[in-house]
Automatic annotation (TrEMBL):
Cleaved signal peptide residues: 1-18
Keyword list, A-Z: Signal
Record's keyword annotation contains Signal: yes
The species this protein was found in: Actinophytocola algeriensis
Chain residue ranges for the region called Disordered: 121-162
UniProt lineage: Bacteria, Bacillati, Actinomycetota, Actinomycetes, Pseudonocardiales
Name listed for the protein in its UniProt record: Uncharacterized protein
Biased composition (Low complexity): 127-157
Amino acid sequence: MVRRFAVAACTVAIGVLAPGCSLFGPTTKNEVCAEFDELGERYLAADGFIDNLLFIQAGALADVADRYDGTPSLGPDAEALEAISDSDSTDGLELMAATAAIAELCGHVLGRQALIPGGSGFGWGDGSADQPDADPPATGTPDRTPPTTGDPPATADEPGHDLYTVSGPGGLALSIPAGWVVGGSPSAANQQAAAPGDDRTFVRFGASTPPSVPLLTEIQNGESGNPNVRNGYQRIRLAETYFLGQAAVDWEFTFVKDGVTRHAFGRYWRQNGLGYVIYLSAPDTEWSSARWVFDAMATTATVY
C-alpha cells in the first residue's frame, strides 16, 4: 500500500525523524500506540470538525500498523485507515471501526487516553421506574466494536414521526415525540418524558457532575451494582463509541419488572465537565416500534 502521508507525519523537519518513529522495517507496539494516541487526540480536539491533519495522521497510523508483525494482526486496520486517509470525510464511528485491532493491542479505544477521568446522576438509585429485586448481574468486558441494532436512525423530519424540541439539564437539547409530557424523574439530574396516560415506554435525558472514575468504569459499576435492573438482567451490549465528538458508552440490556421483560438503551458521554445521558426504556415486546424514539433523540441532541 502507498503511504502518502507517512513521511509528513513522522518528520518534524526535513530529514529529521520524530522521536520513536521509524520509516522502514517492522514497528513496535509502542510506535503503533503512539500514533494511535495521536490520532485520538486529534479527533477529540477537532470536536466534530475534521481537518486535513486528522487524515494525515490516519495515514501515519496506517503505515506503522501495516508494518507491525505481532499479534493481533493489524493488516485490516491498516487497510481501513489507508482508505480513510485517501477520503475526504470520516467520523468517530468509522475511525473506531478502523482501529478495533489497534485498540485491542493498546488496551483502550481511540481517544480514551486523552480523556480526563471523572455518585452517578443517571437515575440508577432507589425510586426508579425500573426497580425490580433480585441478585446483581454478572459483568464482563465491554464489546470492542459497537454493533448497530434495531431500525435505521430516525431524523427530525422522518415521515410519520412528529417531534418537538425540549431542553434538559446541562444545556442539553433534543427532540422527542410530539405530545409526550416532560416531567421529573427519580434522579434530579434527569428529565423524564412519556406519552400521556401511558408510561410503559419512557425516555430520560440529563446531566450531572460525573464521579472521579473513567466513563466506562462508571457504567460497568452501574451494571454490577445497580439495584434497579437486577431481576432477569441480560446484557445486549456495553460498548465504547463516540457521540457529539466525545468518547461515549452505549449500554443496552433487558430485565424483568413486575413479570414483564423490559428493554433499555442508554448512551452516556462527558462534555464540558458534566456527564450526560439519553435513555429509552420500553416493554421488550414493543421495542421494535419504540426504538426510533432513541434514534430521534440521538440524531437531534445538542449541548449548548
